[in-house]
Specification:
Blueprint lengths: L1 H9 L8 H4 L14 E3 L11 E3 L9 E7 L13 E7 L3 E4 L2 E4 L10 H4 L1 H11 L1 H24 L1 H28 L8 H46 L8 H25 L1 E11 L5 E11 L1 H5 L1 H31 L17 H12 L1 H26 L7 H35 L3 H14 L1 H33 L7 H39 L11 H10 L3 H5 L1
Antiparallel strand pairs: 1-2, 3-4, 5-6, 7-8
Helix pairs in contact: 4-8, 5-6, 5-15, 5-16, 6-7, 6-15, 7-15, 7-16, 7-17, 8-10, 8-16, 10-11, 10-12, 10-13, 10-16, 12-13, 13-14, 14-15, 15-16
Pfam families: Choline_transpo
Family: Belongs to the CTL (choline transporter-like) family.
Keywords: Glycoprotein, Membrane, Transmembrane, Transmembrane helix
Length: 560
């Protein structure tokens, strides 16, 4: 990642933060500024000669007067020519992002680089929307912190309120997207943006319907998760310093996302500037000679973005896994500590279990976290490659090949989620036992296979307890950011970044309760297995045993 970043930063065109993909750039390499467009008077012969205009000419035959530095000879520099008025006869065009695209012409045949670089325009919008991204990070922080307080003091009520709020937000967002996609005047000249809005509206409508079905089917489990939040709150009440961990993780994620966005913009804005003397056809005079500068994007460096994306995925997972490991170690220390019968609190053998957890994680388990964070990434990339080949019709030779391709994608998808689950359980076992990743993975597989139904049922409680919190933070942050991005030329990619970062911020705060609940239940299962089987736990608090017997154990087991 560092090598890719240094390579991207070393390009001269990246020093100005990739102005060629942020907005329109004229033939001299100068930015046209906000709310201005680049018009190409002779786009068929000289697609690198663009001038800045306030409004794109809608009809043909208009006379456009531009003051240009004409060349007196081949040895004259770009800025040495005197400004002279030149008249051009316009062709019909329409605004597309920051470029005046020719009307009635197949855009696949137009060689205007600023018009063809759709991905570059989307990435360039990230650099021009940095104020909105900073505001969104603050909204995600405040919303996640507020929801964490609600979980602490009113678990079940917060679950119900979150369900209603998320469904209302999804329904309203679907309505707004459908109206925007159905408006014939909005983005009528930008088919890429219009198709993105249409796809987003369909996805949002499906999300609203699916979430409603999810809430109806899983409401008992969500209410049960709200009840188990009280047990996690009891443990966290003795581990108050653990509540500082989400803020530290949030700052690390904020710096990591800022670094990733900066490197991404520089990668897509990297290239080389070439200068030539162009002969341009005009109305008056008939021909002019102008020195033009054209920007050529670095295709090789853009391919390195895949490696940069892999590094970002690994780094984000590593930061989140480190936070989970510290939380899991502290909760396991709390669970297996003896209980004071007079006060009902746990008596720790060390002065500060949170500091001890941080010390043990950094000193012994960083390799385990790095390996577990990286294990899923290659499988995900293989699946993405197979999906890419399938969409490119590489497997369309016969029906058997298509069926096998879909089966491979399905198997890899199942294997990815199984591997992710085992890696997460291995991290929990490492927090309890202090063993290596390989040993913890073997013990996790043994534990899962011997208690398949119980582990599957128990592990979903922690996930369900904070799922609504993650969704509500994402929806609120994305909705407010959408209103703030109303004037952006390409708001899709900034919204995607806002969704990813808000989910990461929500996960940073909610993972305390998710990991705490999962660790309490995992320690409970290990406690029973180490002391004679079910109903033989030694270290479990009485309220936790009562909740497991009432909700997570068949009645015939509690009677026997």
């Amino acid at each position: 990642m560092i090598a890719v970043a240094i390579t991207a930063f070393s390009h001269e065109s990246s020093i100005s933060f990739a102005q060629e993909i942020e907005g329109g750039v004229d033939f001299q390499g100068q930015s046209c500024g906000p709310r201005r467009f680049v018009y190409f008077p002779d786009f068929q012969v000289n697609p690198d000669f663009g001038v800045c205009v306030d409004v794109c000419p809608r009809t043909a035959g208009q006379v456009i007067t531009i003051h240009l530095p004409l060349e007196a000879g081949m040895g004259v520099g770009i800025k040495s020519g005197a400004l002279s008025p030149v008249h051009f006869t316009s062709y019909a065009s329409h605004p597309r992002a920051y470029v005046c695209a020719p009307a009635g012409v197949n855009l696949q045949q137009v060689t205007i680089l600023q018009l063809q670089d759709t991905i570059g325009r989307f990435v360039g919008a990230l650099a021009s929307c940095w104020q909105v991204l900073i505001i969104a990070s603050g909204i995600a922080l405040s919303t996640a912190g507020l929801y964490l307080v609600m979980l602490r003091f009113c678990g079940c009520v917060s679950v119900l309120l979150s369900t209603v709020a998320i469904e209302s937000t999804l329904a309203f967002s679907s309505y707004r997207l459908l109206r925007a996609a159905a408006d014939p005047l909005l983005y009528e000249d930008d088919p890429v943006m219009l198709s993105s809005l249409q796809i987003s509206s369909v996805v949002m409508c499906c999300a609203a319907v699916l979430f409603l079905l999810f809430a109806v089917v899983n409401m008992p489990r969500l209410l049960l998760a709200g009840a188990f939040i009280t047990h996690a709150s009891r443990a966290l009440s003795q581990l108050k310093r653990l509540l500082v961990l989400p803020f530290i993780t949030y700052v690390l994620l904020l710096l990591l996302f800022g670094w990733g966005i900066l490197v991404t913009v520089c990668i897509f804005g990297a290239g080389e500037m070439s200068t030539r003397i162009a002969t341009i056809a005009a109305a008056s005079p008939a021909y002019i000679s102008v020195a033009t500068e054209s920007f050529q994007a670095s295709t090789k460096l853009r391919w390195l973005f895949i490696y940069h994306l892999f590094g970002m995925y690994w780094s984000v997972n590593f930061v989140l896994s480190t936070s989970e490991m510290i939380t899991a170690t502290a909760i396991s220390l709390w669970y297996f500590s003896p209980e004071n019968r007079m006060t009902g609190l746990k008596d720790f053998q060390m002065a500060d279990p949170v500091s001890y957890s941080v010390h043990m994680t950094i000193k012994y388990h960083l390799g385990t976290l790095a390996l577990s964070s990286c294990s899923v990434a290659p499988v995900e990339h293989i699946r993405s490659f197979l999906l890419y080949l399938k969409h490119k019709n590489e497997f369309e030779a016969n029906t058997f090949t298509k069926v096998m391709a879909r089966c491979c994608c399905c198997c890899i998808w199942c294997f990815k989620y199984c591997l992710r689950y085992i890696c997460k359980e291995a991290v929990y076992v490492t927090a309890i036992q202090g063993t290596s990743f390989r040993t913890s993975g073997k013990l996790a597989c043994t534990l899962i296979s011997s208690n398949l139904l119980r582990v599957g049922a128990l592990s979903q409680i922690g996930y369900a307890s904070v799922l609504l919190g993650k969704l509500i933070v994402c929806t609120i942050t994305s909705l407010i950011s959408w209103f703030l991005l109303d004037n952006a030329s390409s708001p899709i990619l900034p919204l995607v970044v806002v969704v990813l970062f808000s989910y990461g911020a929500a996960h940073t705060f909610m993972t305390i309760y998710e990991t705490s609940i999962n660790m309490l239940l995992m320690c409970f299962i290990l406690d029973e297995n180490l002391h004679g089987g079910r109903s033989n736990s030694v270290h479990a608090p009485a309220p936790l045993i009562q909740s497991v017997n009432d909700h997570l154990r068949p009645k015939w087991q509690t009677v026997m």
